[in-house]
Amino acid sequence: MISPFRAAAHLAVLVPLILAAPVMGQAKKKPAPTATATQGDSGPWLYRGSDVPQDKAWVFGELPNRLRYAVRNNGVPPGQVSIRVRVDAGSMNETESERGYAHFLEHLVFRQSKYIGDAQAIPTWQRLGATFGSDTNAETTPIATTYKIDLPEASASGLDESFKLLSGMMIYPTLSDANIKADLPIVLAEKRERGGTDERIDKLMRETVYSGQLLATRSPIGTEETLTAATQESIRAFHKRWYRPENTVVVVAGDGTPEQFAALIAKWFSDWPVSGARTPTPSFGDPVAPQGALKADGAPVGEVRVAVEPDLPRSFSWAVLRPWRPVNDTVAYNQGLMVDRLAREIINRRLEARARAGGSYLAAGIEQQDVLRSVDGTFVTVTPLGPDWKTAVRDVRAVIADALKTAPTQEEIDREVAEMRVGYTAFSEQRTLQASSALGDEIVGALDIREAVADPAAILTIFDSARPQFTPANVLAHTRSQFKGAVTRGVYITPAIGEADEAALRTALAEPVTGDAGSRLAYKPIDFKSLPAIGAPGKGTVVSTGIAEISQVDFANGVKALIKPSEVEPGRVTVKVRFGGGYRAFGPNDQANAALADLALVGSGIGPLGQEDLDRITTGRKMGFDFAIDDADFVFTANTRREDLADQLYLFAAKLAMPRWDPNPVLRAKAAMKLRADAYAASPRGVLERDLKWIEHDRDPRYRSPTPAELDAATPEGFRKLWEPILSMGPVEVQVYGDVDLAQTTAALERSFGALTPRTALSAEKAAAPYRVPAGSDQPVVLTHHGDARQSAAMVYWPTGGGTAGLRESRQLRILSEVFSNRLLDRLREKLGASYSPQVYSTWPTEFPSGGSILALGMLEPGQLKTFYATADEIAADLIANPPTDDELARVTEPLRQQIARASTGSSYFMLMLEGATQRPELFGSLRSLMIDSTVTTPQAMQALAAKYLVKQRSWRLAVLPQGQTLASVGAAPASGSAPATR
């Protein structure tokens, strides 16, 4: 696969949807390039030229042929071994006539090699327990190609076989004209699926922001001309030039010894033949301002572009670019990066405060990235609220100008330092929970820009020792350095023709602005002790469930909780609250106010706390507040830690007991949804995101996305009218899983959820409303998009069932759907090249007696829809007529067995499996049979299920076509005609 183009990912055209204050992401050391090792430096190869404390868990080595490796023991999840083979060859290693070769070669390596027969890679890895697409994958970026294998329950023989297979793939792929011909349609299908609006914007961004550099023109997917011209001679030449041991690093982390892993690498990779001198990596170029560029304070304003995209919201992004250079990845350097980040967090909080107060832009932010060894850039993105983009840009630049002129207060600094430290602390506390796959990816990421890695505890120490540098004067200096550069470049995306030109963009980026100090926030800490009590604490009754040390706590007010202490998950606590009736609680005209809740419900506050107050009270704490709507309930979710758990529970309970109704979050959410409304129609995937739930529920109006007119009519008063009674509804189920104490958690629940007044029930009429499912028909429901005319989507649904009584059958249906998926992938991708990643899913709602389905999905050219429907029908009919083979079942059940085995070692597994168990206690008993139900079956049982459910007459289908095309025009209309478009 091609890794999404993440250079300047913050320049994405999607409207920012997270409208809370800046939240620290996963705490990790900021990527820092490493220096070339000094002569005579004999330390581990990753740390040469660095004084960053070595993570002693990793063992580094180098074979005589100069292949490097990094290996370590890690038991998360137990039994798994993750292997990464990274080749330092991406799309920027290609010549003009080779564009797309690095990615094409990635496909061919999986097609056939010394130890893997033609098109046998997927079944071969499945027999070893690895699921294709998740456990077995690869990605090509502009600078590297990385092959990824995650082996669940890796035995000694399985590991040996895996290294053997990988060595054959890297060293001896079968690069024949026949294989090139077979894989070319698959690569072109992937290119087509990634085309359209996203491809145009990606191309425009690259060509503008990285003008004059290889990154501007070297997209990994390549061009259709160069790909179709590929021959075995040209592909072999690329492989010979770049697939060499000195360009390769093998990374292994998992449940084994470093000595075992190193021995396997030596056994299978030591004989990699080397011929000729190593080809030097081409120069990626530097950002350079064009002649006569308009002068600006930080950097001359160079290339700017206006893109008119009728389906996209307005977005203005610019970048201050500096040449990327390798530097010594030292402690001092990383501490400087921490000060850089601190400076950006202060500006981002100010930008957010200004947006919350209402004004010219919906959202804005800055970040810094070292991009693919090409630039060191500071990136700014703004989403204007309307066509007056100039005011939005001026307002954002004014906030930045103030930060460049005047140092922040120590109070502002201390607030962001507290936020940063809690992230580093949580990362350190949870270092034993890092999965092997994540550890392997971390090394790969370090190699991408030539940095070292450090143990999370060492990162926290580095941060704490940097505290003397967190002064107003130093933060000001680091702020200024991040807005100095060689050139400033920008792109404005607008739906309207004539709204801007390049001269106007340059002027907007270069004209002087007066600093705006009005967005600076006076930070006044708030203590939870000062907040009103939820009510009189309610005594909880604790009983054992008999499942994995999970206790149930029942309260007199009807609230029920499940608590699972875990000694193997230090520093991690997950809280999930399910309440009310979900989509069943809405009326047929509630679409707008229901949809706004995703962005506005949490932000509208609790009790005496508005959104800014919520940010302040959680400063320096690991707390969260995510919200979602399910079919049968509403959900609050947060990741926290033991010391913050009681206050996290208070926040959730207070939202139900004393909601606040600030209007600004509603108005802001309304603006965001209106801006993104048109973007859904730009591609088949967007249309499905907007309309699929509605169609799946037989056009039940409660699931329909709101129209722009409905959003216009929505008001804060109407929002409150819908949601205030919903927040008083029951039943309420609280799940608390992780590093907790049962007695302490019970006491915290008694003061929070136990103190709630009794909840109201969903009306009998709404509770009894049937789960609507479309009737069977061979006439597809047709939706349209107005994006790339080469893109369409096709689906076939076979209704199944629902409810807890049929859980065993639902698990057997998953096996059947995986068999179906393998066959569909083999037919449509491997043999026909019609679709890059067709898939089959099985769903089974436990809350309702019906509503489940087996769904086959493919993204295709419009002319391939008939092939998709015919192929899906043929596979279904064959499964009814003939049982699958034992090998087909083994290729499915072994990966499923290993997935369940590794998932069951974590609390999240039990949280997922037991959602709703306090209302449906039969889920406890069904958990005991999950492994057997999901992995033990027979060909005859699968055939019987296929005969019961995969009946063509009961199925219904859907198509998403380009606007102006019909099923008849693309040759996919059934004999009886086609249904009209529904949207």
From TrEMBL:
Keyword flag Protease:
yes
Keyword set, alphabetical order = Hydrolase, Metalloprotease, Protease, Signal, Zinc
Where on the tree of life does the source sit, at the highest rank? Bacteria
Please report the stretch or stretches of sequence annotated as the Peptidase M16 C-terminal domain. Answer: 231-418, 733-892
Residue ranges of coiled coil: none
What is the residue range of the signal peptide feature? Answer: 1-20
Say yes or no: keyword tRNA-binding present: no
Q: Which organism is it from?
A: Novosphingobium aquae
Q: What is this protein called?
A: Insulinase family protein
The top of its lineage is: Bacteria, Pseudomonadati, Pseudomonadota, Alphaproteobacteria, Sphingomonadales
The UniProt family comment states: Belongs to the peptidase M16 family.
> Any idea where the Peptidase M16 N-terminal domain is?
80-193
